[in-house]
TrEMBL record:
The lineage of its organism: Bacteria, Pseudomonadati, Myxococcota, Myxococcia, Myxococcales. It comes from Pyxidicoccus fallax. Residues 89-116 are annotated as: Disordered. Keywords: Signal. Residues 1-24 form the signal peptide. This is Outer membrane lipoprotein-sorting protein.
Amino acid sequence: MVRKSLVSSLLAASLTFAPAIALAGEGAECQQAQMSAQAVVDKHLKALGGRERLKAVKTLQVTSISKEGNTLTRMSMQRARPNLMRYDKEKDGVTSSKAFDGTQGWSAEGSAAPQPVGKEKSAMMAEGAAFDDALLDPKARGTTLALDGVEEVNGAPAFKLVLTRGANKETRFIDQKSFLEVKRTSAGIHEGKAYNKTLSFSDYRSVDGIMMSHRVQWEGDGSKGEKVIQSARYDAPIDAATFKLATPRS
């Protein structure tokens, strides 16, 4: 699950604009006929809670339960600016943790002592630990952003925002009415292997003034499942030592 979430976070770079987009079939609202990629991003960020609110966030804590077939995974995620993260999970009675402390990636399983991960894996974890979403500053993240028309998702039109970084490509589907993300597809190379993945987002709720999807379904590379958020909180204090994997796992 940690690996999947890290893959999902790969993005970022120079901004390009699509001059106009096609209408999403008959009956689409005329005012949606012409929008730039940046205009869609701006409306999306506003729908989430606003660019200023998103940039002001210092920490995020989330607990969730994921189901893949008959397997349940309980997970706790903790993140802090600028690039600190920790994931603790329990799957099939086995606990494990992964963390990035701002410099080095760590992992631990069961009662074994935490160990630093290799240089390549640590670099990947560092990238996944970047606190802000790529849409807040695509250029700084090395991501190219473009608008690729409109596609129907769950019976409603959605803008297709395409984010490209190297060999990795991600398409985010932004609902035309709510301007919240309803679907995401990603493809690329991860640890030397090609991957394809689709995520579906629903059950949005406000958490400390920021809209968050509380139900995420995924499918790809022969597996499928869903994650349900149990609790979420922004800006609660987190001890920096938490990200060293030196504290007991919860």
